[in-house]
């Protein structure tokens, strides 16, 4: 599972971090950070995070 | 289920349409929209769209064209006949359904009484066009009535335009964004003043003055008059449920009452859920969304998205196979350089604890407790802490976050 974030779109709203905190977090400046190589069993939560992103900045390859 | 009708093409309606197809529904799908516009996202309207940093094309709801629906645009639903299972439209047409998604959202609350030209509300794309046209046409004295999220975001966007727009924000209830509780409303007030907004707090508006039919001033309860070339009335919203009067559905406080699985409840003592009708978004008052005082309505983006999706899945599954709605409320806004986020229902607490940062500073996290139990948290420019509070809120209710698949 490879997670791609379009940082041009990402507004640091943090909705993904609420849905899948194992994978997504905000840093001190509210910039999004993504865990590299998340475990395959998190695919469902990552998909939910993709849907929870108001600006559709997150996509997944090779789930 | 062969025919599904979705009434409302905002976020909740579009997510419902997508989820119906994702859930294997291959029958006839009709989406009814009162607006003639293609579906769009609402949060940027008062911020990026007014500011001009996003265009109308940027805020279109991606995917809305992809789920194979018949669209009925520019036509309102005006009635619901549950016995004959038909939605009646303004043009006289009737749409039969086996399943119905009620997602009609809300309208801006209008000023109670007649208003002169130049007094606007902002809820939709057309409203933002009118607002920008007035400002671009030379309106420089703008009065915003109501310092809730819409009022505060608009005040911020207008003073930030660099056009010399002078904004006065009038808030009868004393503090901007008071729903957030704690010290954050005062932080917002300070930031607004520094940005050049004139705040008139704790004073009501009694009426408007006009010259040649156009607004010229706003009359205040203390006898003062604010000069105004343009007025935005931002005093909340009204759920769009007029079309459901007479349907036999329960409409407490004008919202559609639905059970924990988002099935609409009938009016009356039994209040039995209708297995063919689900409800989603601003229009819903769901039994699963409660503060300590009882069920509340949520008018948030994330709630509309999650309810739209679950309502569609539950409609397909039927009451026996449906899942309860289990969403931790979350919200964000930005104004005057402050990025404000919340989880839970912070305004419903009885004690506020500053957990990080200095109270009253522009970097702060406040947790809200009620009878010792966490009910919500608010961050200003420290959003990284909120996921932790979201997890705690989820844990205290022992429920999964809406939309997340439970693994294992």
Structure write-up:
With 63 residues, chain A is α+β, with helices and mostly antiparallel strands. Chain A has helices at residues 15-19, 43-52, and strands spanning 2-5, 24-26, 32-34, 58-61. In chain A, 24% of the residues lie in helices and 22% in strands. The model of chain A has no long low-confidence stretch (mean pLDDT 93). In chain B, the strands form 8 sheets. In chain B, strands 3-2-1-7-20-19 form a 6-stranded mixed sheet, covered by helices on one side. In chain B, helix 1 crosses helix 6 (301-321) and helix 2 (45-51) packs parallel to helix 4 (149-159). Chain B starts with a strand and ends in an 11-residue tail after the last helix. The interface between A and B is medium-sized, with 25 and 31 residues.
Question: What is the share of helical residues of chain B?
Answer: 10-25%
> In what order do the strands lie side by side in the largest sheet of chain A?
1-4
Read across the widest sheet of chain B, the strand sequence of neighbours is 3-2-1-7-20-19
How would you sum up the major sheet of chain A?
Answer: 2 strands, antiparallel
Radius of gyration of chain B: 22 Å
Taken from the alpha-carbon principal axes, the silhouette of chain B is globular
Distance between the termini of chain B: 30 Å
Number of strands of chain B: 28
Mean pLDDT of chain A: 93
Radius of gyration of chain A: 10 Å
Tell me the strand percentage band of chain A. Answer: 15-25%
Total beta strand runs of chain A: 4
- Low-confidence runs of chain B (pLDDT<50, min 5 residues)? 398-408
What structural class is derived from the secondary structure elements of chain A? alpha+beta
Morphology of chain A = globular
What's the helix count of chain A? 2
């Amino acid at each position: 599972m490879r997670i791609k974030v379009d940082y041009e779109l990402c507004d640091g709203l943090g909705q993904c971090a609420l849905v899948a905190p194992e994978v997504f977090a905000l840093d001190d400046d509210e910039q999004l950070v993504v865990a590299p190589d998340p475990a395959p069993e998190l695919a469902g939560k990552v998909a939910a995070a993709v849907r929870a992103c108001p600006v559709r900045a997150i996509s997944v390859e090779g789930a | 289920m062969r025919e599904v009708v979705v009434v409302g093409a905002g976020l909740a309606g579009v997510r419902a349409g997508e989820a119906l197809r994702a859930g294997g529904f291959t029958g006839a799908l009709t989406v009814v929209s009162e607006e003639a516009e293609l579906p769009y996202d609402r949060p940027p309207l008062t911020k990026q769209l007014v500011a001009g940093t996003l265009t109308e094309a940027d805020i279109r709801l991606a995917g809305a064209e992809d789920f194979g629906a018949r669209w009925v645009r520019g036509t309102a639903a005006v009635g619901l006949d549950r016995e004959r299972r038909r939605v009646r439209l303004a043009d006289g047409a009737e749409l039969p359904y086996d399943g119905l998604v009620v997602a009609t959202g809300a309208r801006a609350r209008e000023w109670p009484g007649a208003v002169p030209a130049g007094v606007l509300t902002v809820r939709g794309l057309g409203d933002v066009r009118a607002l920008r046209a007035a400002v671009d046409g030379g309106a420089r004295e703008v009065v915003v009535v109501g310092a809730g999220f819409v009022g505060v975001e608009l005040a911020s966007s207008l003073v930030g335009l660099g056009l010399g727009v002078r904004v006065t924000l009038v808030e009868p209830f004393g503090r901007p964004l008071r729903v957030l509780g704690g010290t954050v409303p005062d932080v917002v007030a300070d930031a607004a003043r520094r940005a050049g907004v004139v705040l008139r707090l704790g004073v009501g508006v009694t009426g408007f003055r006009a010259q040649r039919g156009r607004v010229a001033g706003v009359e205040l309860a203390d006898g003062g008059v604010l000069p105004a070339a343009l007025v935005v009335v931002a005093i909340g919203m009204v759920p769009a449920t007029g079309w459901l009067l007479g349907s036999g559905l329960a409409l407490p406080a004008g919202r559609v009452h639905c059970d924990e699985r988002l099935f609409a409840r009938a009016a009356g003592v039994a209040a039995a859920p209708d297995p063919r009708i689900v409800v989603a978004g601003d229009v819903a008052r769901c039994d699963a969304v409660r503060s300590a005082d009882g069920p509340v309505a949520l008018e948030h983006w994330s709630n509309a998205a999650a309810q739209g999706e679950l309502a569609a899945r539950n409609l397909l599954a039927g009451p026996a196979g449906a899942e309860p709605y289990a969403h931790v409320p979350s919200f964000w806004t930005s104004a005057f350089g402050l990025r404000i986020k919340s989880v839970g229902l912070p305004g419903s607490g009885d004690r506020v604890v500053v957990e990080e940062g200095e109270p009253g500073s522009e970097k702060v996290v406040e947790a809200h407790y009620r009878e010792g139990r966490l009910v919500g948290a608010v961050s200003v420019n420290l959003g990284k802490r909120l996921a932790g509070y979201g997890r705690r809120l989820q844990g205290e209710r022992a429920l999964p976050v809406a939309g997340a698949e439970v693994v294992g």
